[in-house]
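In this supplementary section we document a worked example of the pipeline. Step one takes a protein sequence of length 123 as its only input; no multiple sequence alignment statistics are reported here. Step two produces a three-dimensional model, which step three serialises into C-alpha coordinates for compact storage. The input and output of this example are shown verbatim.
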Amino acid sequence: QVQLVESGGDLVQPGGSLRLSCAASGSIFTINAMGWYRQAPGKQRELVAAITSGVITNYADSVKGRFTISRDNAKNTVYLQMNSLKPEDTAAYYCNAKGVRDYSGRLDTQDYWGQGTQVTVSS
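The serialised model returned by step three reads:
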Protein backbone atom coordinates (compact mmCIF):
# COMPACT_ATOMS: atom_id res chain seq x y z
CA GLN A 1 0.00 0.00 0.00
CA VAL A 2 1.55 3.22 -1.22
CA GLN A 3 0.07 6.68 -0.95
CA LEU A 4 1.26 9.93 -2.46
CA VAL A 5 0.27 13.23 -0.88
CA GLU A 6 0.84 16.45 -2.79
CA SER A 7 0.90 20.02 -1.58
CA GLY A 8 1.95 23.49 -2.66
CA GLY A 9 -0.48 24.36 -5.42
CA ASP A 10 -1.83 27.89 -5.39
CA LEU A 11 -2.95 30.89 -7.41
CA VAL A 12 0.01 33.02 -8.47
CA GLN A 13 0.74 35.93 -10.78
CA PRO A 14 2.68 35.42 -14.00
CA GLY A 15 6.38 35.45 -13.23
CA GLY A 16 5.83 34.12 -9.74
CA SER A 17 7.13 30.97 -8.12
CA LEU A 18 5.74 27.92 -6.37
CA ARG A 19 7.24 24.84 -4.80
CA LEU A 20 5.30 21.61 -4.97
CA SER A 21 5.94 18.72 -2.62
CA CYS A 22 4.92 15.08 -2.80
CA ALA A 23 5.51 12.64 0.03
CA ALA A 24 5.17 8.90 -0.51
CA SER A 25 4.19 6.68 2.39
CA GLY A 26 3.50 3.02 2.96
CA SER A 27 5.57 -0.11 2.63
CA ILE A 28 8.46 1.52 0.81
CA PHE A 29 12.12 0.72 0.81
CA THR A 30 13.14 2.47 -2.39
CA ILE A 31 11.50 4.22 -5.31
CA ASN A 32 13.20 4.06 -8.67
CA ALA A 33 11.65 7.14 -10.23
CA MET A 34 9.38 9.94 -9.17
CA GLY A 35 7.93 12.64 -11.30
CA TRP A 36 5.40 15.34 -11.89
CA TYR A 37 2.72 15.34 -14.55
CA ARG A 38 0.15 17.99 -15.30
CA GLN A 39 -3.21 18.11 -16.97
CA ALA A 40 -5.08 21.19 -18.09
CA PRO A 41 -8.79 21.18 -18.94
CA GLY A 42 -9.35 19.70 -22.38
CA LYS A 43 -5.78 18.45 -22.66
CA GLN A 44 -4.11 15.13 -22.00
CA ARG A 45 -1.82 14.54 -19.07
CA GLU A 46 1.80 15.29 -19.85
CA LEU A 47 5.14 14.73 -18.17
CA VAL A 48 6.60 17.85 -16.59
CA ALA A 49 9.69 16.47 -14.91
CA ALA A 50 11.03 13.20 -13.55
CA ILE A 51 13.95 12.11 -11.43
CA THR A 52 15.45 8.70 -10.72
CA SER A 53 17.04 7.47 -7.52
CA GLY A 54 20.34 8.16 -9.26
CA VAL A 55 19.29 11.79 -9.74
CA ILE A 56 18.97 11.51 -13.50
CA THR A 57 16.45 14.16 -14.49
CA ASN A 58 14.15 14.69 -17.43
CA TYR A 59 12.17 17.83 -18.22
CA ALA A 60 9.55 18.81 -20.71
CA ASP A 61 10.95 21.32 -23.19
CA SER A 62 8.37 23.86 -22.11
CA VAL A 63 9.70 24.01 -18.54
CA LYS A 64 13.44 23.62 -19.03
CA GLY A 65 15.33 26.42 -17.35
CA ARG A 66 12.33 27.37 -15.23
CA PHE A 67 11.47 24.26 -13.21
CA THR A 68 13.74 22.14 -11.06
CA ILE A 69 12.91 18.69 -9.75
CA SER A 70 14.63 17.22 -6.71
CA ARG A 71 14.07 14.43 -4.22
CA ASP A 72 14.87 13.41 -0.69
CA ASN A 73 15.18 9.64 -0.71
CA ALA A 74 15.24 9.40 3.09
CA LYS A 75 11.82 11.04 3.19
CA ASN A 76 10.52 9.51 -0.05
CA THR A 77 9.64 13.01 -1.10
CA VAL A 78 9.92 14.73 -4.47
CA TYR A 79 9.81 18.48 -5.03
CA LEU A 80 9.15 20.70 -7.99
CA GLN A 81 10.46 24.24 -7.82
CA MET A 82 8.61 26.32 -10.39
CA ASN A 83 9.94 29.75 -11.31
CA SER A 84 8.93 32.29 -13.93
CA LEU A 85 5.48 30.81 -14.08
CA LYS A 86 3.37 31.42 -17.16
CA PRO A 87 -0.39 31.19 -17.70
CA GLU A 88 0.33 28.13 -19.85
CA ASP A 89 1.55 26.36 -16.70
CA THR A 90 -1.96 26.41 -15.28
CA ALA A 91 -3.00 22.82 -14.64
CA ALA A 92 -3.59 20.16 -12.06
CA TYR A 93 -0.20 18.74 -11.12
CA TYR A 94 0.06 15.07 -10.23
CA CYS A 95 2.85 13.25 -8.45
CA ASN A 96 3.91 9.87 -9.80
CA ALA A 97 6.05 7.07 -8.41
CA LYS A 98 7.24 3.99 -10.26
CA GLY A 99 9.56 1.17 -9.43
CA VAL A 100 8.59 0.92 -5.76
CA ARG A 101 10.30 -1.77 -3.70
CA ASP A 102 9.11 -2.85 -0.28
CA TYR A 103 11.35 -3.98 2.56
CA SER A 104 11.30 -7.56 1.26
CA GLY A 105 12.77 -6.41 -2.02
CA ARG A 106 9.60 -6.97 -4.01
CA LEU A 107 9.26 -4.70 -7.00
CA ASP A 108 5.81 -3.22 -7.52
CA THR A 109 5.15 -3.01 -11.24
CA GLN A 110 2.27 -0.56 -10.98
CA ASP A 111 2.59 3.19 -10.89
CA TYR A 112 1.19 5.25 -8.05
CA TRP A 113 -0.45 8.63 -8.39
CA GLY A 114 -1.35 11.46 -6.07
CA GLN A 115 -4.71 13.18 -6.15
CA GLY A 116 -3.33 16.32 -7.74
CA THR A 117 -2.73 19.89 -6.65
CA GLN A 118 -4.01 22.85 -8.62
CA VAL A 119 -1.64 25.48 -9.97
CA THR A 120 -3.24 28.56 -11.46
CA VAL A 121 -1.16 31.32 -13.04
CA SER A 122 -3.26 34.36 -13.77
CA SER A 123 -3.35 38.12 -13.51
